[in-house]
Design a protein that fits this description.
- This protein folds into 2 domains: 137 residues, NAD(P)-binding Rossmann-like Domain (Rossmann fold), CATH 3.40.50; 161 residues, 2-Layer Sandwich (Dihydrodipicolinate Reductase, domain 2), CATH 3.30.360.
- With 311 residues, it is an alpha/beta fold.
- It has 10 helices and 14 strands.
- The strands form 3 sheets. Strands 5-2-1-6-7-8 form a 6-stranded parallel sheet, sandwiched between helices. A 6-stranded mixed sheet has the order 10-9-11-14-13-12. It has a two-stranded antiparallel ribbon with strand order 3-4.
- Bound molecules: NADP nicotinamide-adenine-dinucleotide phosphate.
- NADP nicotinamide-adenine-dinucleotide phosphate binds next to α1, α3, α6 and α10.
Protein backbone atom coordinates (compact mmCIF):
# COMPACT_ATOMS: atom_id res chain seq x y z
CA UNK A 1 0.00 0.00 0.00
CA UNK A 2 1.18 3.56 -0.64
CA UNK A 3 2.55 5.28 2.46
CA UNK A 4 0.22 8.23 1.78
CA UNK A 5 -2.91 6.05 1.46
CA UNK A 6 -5.77 7.94 3.15
CA UNK A 7 -6.63 5.66 6.07
CA UNK A 8 -9.36 6.04 8.69
CA UNK A 9 -8.99 4.14 11.97
CA UNK A 10 -12.53 3.91 13.31
CA UNK A 11 -12.62 3.01 17.00
CA UNK A 12 -9.19 4.59 17.44
CA UNK A 13 -9.65 5.19 21.18
CA UNK A 14 -10.30 1.51 21.90
CA UNK A 15 -8.02 -1.41 22.77
CA UNK A 16 -7.71 -2.59 19.16
CA UNK A 17 -7.65 0.96 17.77
CA UNK A 18 -4.58 1.84 19.85
CA UNK A 19 -2.60 -1.10 18.45
CA UNK A 20 -3.86 -0.31 14.94
CA UNK A 21 -2.45 3.23 15.18
CA UNK A 22 0.88 1.85 16.47
CA UNK A 23 1.16 -0.70 13.66
CA UNK A 24 0.28 1.83 10.95
CA UNK A 25 2.93 4.19 12.27
CA UNK A 26 5.52 1.36 12.43
CA UNK A 27 4.73 0.51 8.81
CA UNK A 28 5.19 4.11 7.68
CA UNK A 29 1.62 5.10 6.80
CA UNK A 30 1.40 8.83 7.31
CA UNK A 31 -2.08 9.90 6.17
CA UNK A 32 -4.04 8.41 9.04
CA UNK A 33 -7.16 9.91 10.64
CA UNK A 34 -8.62 8.77 13.97
CA UNK A 35 -12.37 8.32 14.48
CA UNK A 36 -14.45 7.31 17.49
CA UNK A 37 -17.84 8.11 19.00
CA UNK A 38 -19.10 11.59 19.91
CA UNK A 39 -17.80 10.87 23.44
CA UNK A 40 -14.18 11.18 22.31
CA UNK A 41 -14.53 13.66 19.45
CA UNK A 42 -12.06 16.54 19.83
CA UNK A 43 -9.67 14.67 22.10
CA UNK A 44 -6.08 14.14 21.03
CA UNK A 45 -4.53 10.75 20.40
CA UNK A 46 -0.89 10.37 19.39
CA UNK A 47 -0.95 13.84 17.83
CA UNK A 48 -4.21 13.15 15.96
CA UNK A 49 -7.46 14.95 16.74
CA UNK A 50 -10.18 12.35 17.15
CA UNK A 51 -13.13 12.95 14.83
CA UNK A 52 -16.65 11.68 15.37
CA UNK A 53 -17.47 8.74 13.10
CA UNK A 54 -20.68 9.70 11.32
CA UNK A 55 -22.23 8.92 7.94
CA UNK A 56 -20.98 12.35 6.86
CA UNK A 57 -17.36 12.06 8.04
CA UNK A 58 -16.90 8.50 6.74
CA UNK A 59 -19.14 8.47 3.68
CA UNK A 60 -17.99 11.44 1.65
CA UNK A 61 -15.26 9.68 -0.27
CA UNK A 62 -12.18 11.19 1.40
CA UNK A 63 -10.89 7.86 2.69
CA UNK A 64 -9.37 5.00 0.69
CA UNK A 65 -9.17 2.48 3.55
CA UNK A 66 -11.17 2.25 6.80
CA UNK A 67 -10.09 -0.09 9.58
CA UNK A 68 -13.10 -0.54 11.86
CA UNK A 69 -12.87 -1.69 15.46
CA UNK A 70 -16.16 -0.51 16.92
CA UNK A 71 -19.00 -2.68 18.21
CA UNK A 72 -21.29 -4.70 15.97
CA UNK A 73 -24.17 -2.19 15.99
CA UNK A 74 -21.93 0.75 15.05
CA UNK A 75 -20.28 -1.33 12.32
CA UNK A 76 -23.65 -2.32 10.86
CA UNK A 77 -24.50 1.35 10.51
CA UNK A 78 -21.19 2.88 9.46
CA UNK A 79 -19.32 0.26 7.41
CA UNK A 80 -21.73 0.18 4.42
CA UNK A 81 -21.68 3.99 4.27
CA UNK A 82 -17.89 4.15 4.24
CA UNK A 83 -17.78 1.41 1.60
CA UNK A 84 -20.34 3.30 -0.51
CA UNK A 85 -18.06 6.34 -0.23
CA UNK A 86 -15.32 4.30 -1.92
CA UNK A 87 -13.19 3.14 1.01
CA UNK A 88 -12.13 -0.48 1.35
CA UNK A 89 -13.51 -1.38 4.79
CA UNK A 90 -11.95 -4.05 7.01
CA UNK A 91 -14.36 -4.73 9.85
CA UNK A 92 -13.35 -6.45 13.07
CA UNK A 93 -16.81 -6.77 14.60
CA UNK A 94 -19.14 -9.74 14.18
CA UNK A 95 -21.51 -7.72 11.93
CA UNK A 96 -20.47 -9.15 8.55
CA UNK A 97 -18.34 -12.20 9.32
CA UNK A 98 -20.91 -14.79 8.33
CA UNK A 99 -22.66 -12.77 5.65
CA UNK A 100 -22.76 -14.50 2.28
CA UNK A 101 -20.55 -12.73 -0.27
CA UNK A 102 -18.38 -11.04 2.35
CA UNK A 103 -14.97 -12.67 2.68
CA UNK A 104 -13.77 -13.64 6.16
CA UNK A 105 -10.02 -13.61 5.87
CA UNK A 106 -6.89 -14.81 7.61
CA UNK A 107 -4.17 -13.92 5.08
CA UNK A 108 -2.03 -17.01 5.82
CA UNK A 109 -5.03 -19.33 5.31
CA UNK A 110 -7.36 -17.87 2.68
CA UNK A 111 -5.62 -14.70 1.56
CA UNK A 112 -6.83 -15.34 -1.98
CA UNK A 113 -10.32 -14.37 -0.76
CA UNK A 114 -9.21 -10.86 0.28
CA UNK A 115 -9.60 -9.37 -3.17
CA UNK A 116 -12.99 -11.01 -3.77
CA UNK A 117 -14.75 -8.16 -2.02
CA UNK A 118 -17.21 -5.45 -2.86
CA UNK A 119 -15.74 -2.95 -0.45
CA UNK A 120 -16.07 -4.93 2.80
CA UNK A 121 -13.83 -7.67 4.21
CA UNK A 122 -14.49 -9.16 7.64
CA UNK A 123 -11.76 -9.89 10.17
CA UNK A 124 -12.46 -13.04 12.23
CA UNK A 125 -12.85 -13.31 16.00
CA UNK A 126 -9.58 -13.17 17.96
CA UNK A 127 -9.78 -16.90 18.81
CA UNK A 128 -10.82 -18.01 15.32
CA UNK A 129 -7.68 -16.50 13.75
CA UNK A 130 -5.03 -18.54 15.64
CA UNK A 131 -7.28 -21.60 15.50
CA UNK A 132 -7.66 -21.44 11.70
CA UNK A 133 -3.94 -20.79 11.26
CA UNK A 134 -3.13 -23.93 13.26
CA UNK A 135 -5.78 -26.11 11.65
CA UNK A 136 -5.16 -25.18 8.00
CA UNK A 137 -1.77 -26.91 7.61
CA UNK A 138 -3.09 -30.02 9.40
CA UNK A 139 -6.17 -30.03 7.13
CA UNK A 140 -3.89 -29.84 4.10
CA UNK A 141 -1.59 -32.61 5.34
CA UNK A 142 -3.97 -35.27 6.65
CA UNK A 143 -7.55 -33.94 6.67
CA UNK A 144 -9.57 -32.91 9.70
CA UNK A 145 -12.34 -35.03 11.20
CA UNK A 146 -13.14 -33.21 14.47
CA UNK A 147 -11.92 -30.25 16.53
CA UNK A 148 -12.35 -29.57 20.22
CA UNK A 149 -11.01 -26.33 21.67
CA UNK A 150 -10.92 -24.73 25.12
CA UNK A 151 -10.02 -21.03 25.18
CA UNK A 152 -8.46 -18.97 27.96
CA UNK A 153 -9.21 -15.40 26.90
CA UNK A 154 -7.64 -12.27 28.33
CA UNK A 155 -9.49 -9.19 29.55
CA UNK A 156 -8.36 -7.12 26.55
CA UNK A 157 -10.55 -9.29 24.34
CA UNK A 158 -13.50 -7.49 25.94
CA UNK A 159 -12.09 -4.01 25.24
CA UNK A 160 -10.38 -1.12 26.97
CA UNK A 161 -12.90 -0.88 29.82
CA UNK A 162 -12.39 -4.52 30.71
CA UNK A 163 -8.63 -3.95 30.81
CA UNK A 164 -9.16 -1.01 33.18
CA UNK A 165 -11.37 -3.17 35.35
CA UNK A 166 -8.78 -5.93 35.59
CA UNK A 167 -6.07 -3.37 36.43
CA UNK A 168 -8.29 -1.97 39.21
CA UNK A 169 -9.26 -5.37 40.60
CA UNK A 170 -5.76 -6.78 40.54
CA UNK A 171 -4.39 -3.83 42.47
CA UNK A 172 -6.96 -4.24 45.26
CA UNK A 173 -8.07 -7.00 47.60
CA UNK A 174 -11.05 -7.58 45.38
CA UNK A 175 -11.52 -11.19 44.21
CA UNK A 176 -10.70 -11.56 40.53
CA UNK A 177 -14.05 -12.75 39.32
CA UNK A 178 -13.81 -12.36 35.51
CA UNK A 179 -17.32 -13.68 35.26
CA UNK A 180 -18.87 -10.74 33.48
CA UNK A 181 -18.44 -11.40 29.83
CA UNK A 182 -20.27 -14.25 28.19
CA UNK A 183 -23.95 -15.09 28.28
CA UNK A 184 -26.33 -17.55 26.68
CA UNK A 185 -26.64 -21.33 26.93
CA UNK A 186 -24.00 -22.11 24.40
CA UNK A 187 -22.03 -18.90 24.65
CA UNK A 188 -22.08 -16.64 21.65
CA UNK A 189 -18.28 -16.87 21.45
CA UNK A 190 -18.41 -20.66 21.15
CA UNK A 191 -20.86 -20.54 18.24
CA UNK A 192 -18.77 -17.82 16.55
CA UNK A 193 -15.65 -19.98 16.73
CA UNK A 194 -17.44 -22.94 15.14
CA UNK A 195 -19.12 -20.97 12.34
CA UNK A 196 -16.12 -18.79 11.52
CA UNK A 197 -13.67 -21.70 11.50
CA UNK A 198 -15.90 -23.60 9.09
CA UNK A 199 -16.14 -20.57 6.78
CA UNK A 200 -12.41 -19.76 6.80
CA UNK A 201 -11.33 -23.37 6.27
CA UNK A 202 -14.15 -23.99 3.78
CA UNK A 203 -15.20 -27.10 5.70
CA UNK A 204 -18.91 -26.36 6.29
CA UNK A 205 -19.61 -29.58 8.20
CA UNK A 206 -16.47 -29.75 10.35
CA UNK A 207 -17.48 -30.68 13.92
CA UNK A 208 -16.01 -27.92 16.12
CA UNK A 209 -16.81 -27.96 19.82
CA UNK A 210 -15.60 -24.95 21.84
CA UNK A 211 -15.58 -23.97 25.49
CA UNK A 212 -14.67 -20.32 26.05
CA UNK A 213 -13.48 -18.92 29.36
CA UNK A 214 -12.26 -15.47 30.38
CA UNK A 215 -9.15 -15.48 32.59
CA UNK A 216 -7.49 -12.70 34.61
CA UNK A 217 -4.75 -11.98 32.09
CA UNK A 218 -4.42 -8.52 30.53
CA UNK A 219 -3.39 -9.42 26.95
CA UNK A 220 -2.94 -12.72 25.12
CA UNK A 221 -5.41 -15.52 24.46
CA UNK A 222 -4.48 -19.21 24.84
CA UNK A 223 -6.25 -22.24 23.38
CA UNK A 224 -5.98 -25.96 24.10
CA UNK A 225 -6.85 -28.02 21.02
CA UNK A 226 -7.76 -31.66 20.57
CA UNK A 227 -7.97 -32.75 16.94
CA UNK A 228 -8.99 -35.92 15.16
CA UNK A 229 -7.51 -36.24 11.69
CA UNK A 230 -8.54 -38.37 8.72
CA UNK A 231 -5.24 -40.20 8.58
CA UNK A 232 -2.62 -40.54 11.33
CA UNK A 233 0.01 -37.88 12.02
CA UNK A 234 2.79 -38.47 14.52
CA UNK A 235 3.72 -35.65 16.88
CA UNK A 236 7.03 -35.26 15.00
CA UNK A 237 5.21 -35.01 11.66
CA UNK A 238 2.73 -32.52 13.13
CA UNK A 239 5.58 -30.43 14.44
CA UNK A 240 7.21 -30.39 11.01
CA UNK A 241 3.96 -29.44 9.26
CA UNK A 242 3.29 -26.64 11.75
CA UNK A 243 6.86 -25.34 11.72
CA UNK A 244 6.59 -24.78 7.95
CA UNK A 245 3.22 -23.01 8.12
CA UNK A 246 3.19 -19.22 7.61
CA UNK A 247 2.56 -17.08 10.68
CA UNK A 248 3.18 -19.87 13.21
CA UNK A 249 6.16 -20.19 15.53
CA UNK A 250 6.89 -23.39 17.42
CA UNK A 251 7.36 -22.79 21.15
CA UNK A 252 7.61 -25.72 23.57
CA UNK A 253 5.33 -24.04 26.15
CA UNK A 254 3.28 -21.23 24.63
CA UNK A 255 1.79 -18.69 27.05
CA UNK A 256 -0.04 -15.36 26.76
CA UNK A 257 2.97 -13.61 28.29
CA UNK A 258 5.28 -14.93 25.57
CA UNK A 259 2.78 -14.02 22.84
CA UNK A 260 2.31 -10.34 23.73
CA UNK A 261 3.82 -8.03 21.11
CA UNK A 262 4.66 -10.99 18.85
CA UNK A 263 3.23 -11.15 15.33
CA UNK A 264 3.27 -14.95 15.10
CA UNK A 265 0.93 -17.42 16.74
CA UNK A 266 2.85 -19.63 19.18
CA UNK A 267 2.14 -23.37 18.90
CA UNK A 268 3.48 -26.05 21.22
CA UNK A 269 2.73 -29.00 23.54
CA UNK A 270 2.36 -31.00 20.30
CA UNK A 271 1.50 -34.60 21.23
CA UNK A 272 -0.59 -37.57 20.19
CA UNK A 273 -3.96 -37.89 21.90
CA UNK A 274 -4.06 -41.65 22.27
CA UNK A 275 -7.62 -41.69 23.65
CA UNK A 276 -9.09 -41.37 20.13
CA UNK A 277 -8.22 -42.62 16.65
CA UNK A 278 -5.75 -40.27 14.92
CA UNK A 279 -5.80 -37.86 17.86
CA UNK A 280 -3.51 -34.88 18.28
CA UNK A 281 -3.33 -32.35 21.15
CA UNK A 282 -1.76 -28.88 21.01
CA UNK A 283 -1.58 -25.60 22.89
CA UNK A 284 -1.64 -22.22 21.19
CA UNK A 285 -1.11 -18.61 22.35
CA UNK A 286 -1.63 -15.37 20.43
CA UNK A 287 -1.63 -11.62 21.00
CA UNK A 288 -5.37 -11.05 20.58
CA UNK A 289 -5.00 -7.30 19.97
CA UNK A 290 -2.27 -7.80 17.37
CA UNK A 291 -2.64 -10.93 15.17
CA UNK A 292 -6.10 -11.52 16.68
CA UNK A 293 -7.30 -8.11 15.47
CA UNK A 294 -5.23 -5.08 14.36
CA UNK A 295 -2.38 -6.83 12.55
CA UNK A 296 -4.61 -9.32 10.75
CA UNK A 297 -6.81 -6.45 9.49
CA UNK A 298 -3.83 -4.46 8.19
CA UNK A 299 -2.46 -7.57 6.48
CA UNK A 300 -5.86 -8.10 4.81
CA UNK A 301 -5.84 -4.51 3.57
CA UNK A 302 -2.31 -4.79 2.24
CA UNK A 303 -3.27 -7.93 0.38
CA UNK A 304 -6.58 -6.65 -0.96
CA UNK A 305 -5.17 -3.35 -2.12
CA UNK A 306 -2.20 -5.06 -3.74
CA UNK A 307 -4.57 -7.39 -5.60
CA UNK A 308 -6.80 -4.46 -6.48
CA UNK A 309 -3.99 -2.39 -7.95
CA UNK A 310 -2.68 -5.49 -9.77
CA UNK A 311 -6.13 -6.22 -11.27
N1 LIG B 1 -10.24 -6.72 21.77
C1 LIG B 1 -9.98 -7.73 20.96
O1 LIG B 1 -9.11 -8.59 21.22
C2 LIG B 1 -10.74 -7.85 19.66
C3 LIG B 1 -10.30 -8.79 18.74
C4 LIG B 1 -10.99 -8.94 17.55
C5 LIG B 1 -12.09 -8.15 17.30
N2 LIG B 1 -12.50 -7.23 18.20
C6 LIG B 1 -13.66 -6.39 17.86
O2 LIG B 1 -13.22 -5.05 17.65
C7 LIG B 1 -14.23 -4.15 18.09
C8 LIG B 1 -13.63 -3.17 19.10
O3 LIG B 1 -13.04 -3.89 20.14
P1 LIG B 1 -12.15 -3.18 21.26
O4 LIG B 1 -11.69 -4.30 22.10
O5 LIG B 1 -11.16 -2.25 20.67
O6 LIG B 1 -13.28 -2.32 22.05
P2 LIG B 1 -13.14 -1.01 22.94
O7 LIG B 1 -11.82 -0.95 23.61
O8 LIG B 1 -14.36 -0.98 23.79
O9 LIG B 1 -13.21 0.19 21.89
C9 LIG B 1 -14.39 0.49 21.18
C10 LIG B 1 -14.12 1.63 20.23
O10 LIG B 1 -15.27 1.84 19.43
C11 LIG B 1 -15.66 3.21 19.53
N3 LIG B 1 -17.10 3.31 19.37
C12 LIG B 1 -18.06 2.75 20.14
N4 LIG B 1 -19.29 3.08 19.66
C13 LIG B 1 -19.08 3.85 18.57
C14 LIG B 1 -19.93 4.51 17.64
N5 LIG B 1 -21.26 4.42 17.73
N6 LIG B 1 -19.38 5.22 16.65
C15 LIG B 1 -18.03 5.29 16.54
N7 LIG B 1 -17.16 4.71 17.38
C16 LIG B 1 -17.70 3.99 18.38
C17 LIG B 1 -15.19 3.65 20.89
O11 LIG B 1 -15.10 5.06 20.92
P3 LIG B 1 -15.27 5.90 22.29
O12 LIG B 1 -13.93 5.85 22.99
O13 LIG B 1 -15.57 7.29 21.77
O14 LIG B 1 -16.37 5.28 23.06
C18 LIG B 1 -13.81 2.96 20.94
O15 LIG B 1 -12.88 3.68 20.17
C19 LIG B 1 -15.37 -5.00 18.63
O16 LIG B 1 -16.33 -5.20 17.62
C20 LIG B 1 -14.68 -6.31 18.97
O17 LIG B 1 -15.57 -7.40 18.92
C21 LIG B 1 -11.84 -7.05 19.37
Amino acid sequence: MRSNLRIGVVGATGAVGAITLDLLRERGYDAVRAFASARSAGSTLDGLTVEEATPETLGVGDLELCLFSVGTAASRELVPLAAAGGALCIDKSAAFRLQEGIPLVVPEVNGDRAHQNEGIVANPNCCSIPLAMTLAPIRDAVGLRRVRVATYQSASGAGAQAMDRLRRESSSDHDLRMDWEFDGVEFDEEEKIRAETRKILELPDLPVSATCVRVPVLVGHAEALWLETDTPLSSAEAREVLSEAPGLRIDEFPSPGKAVGVDEVLVGRIRRDTTVENGLALFVACDNLRKGAALNAIQIAELALRERSAA
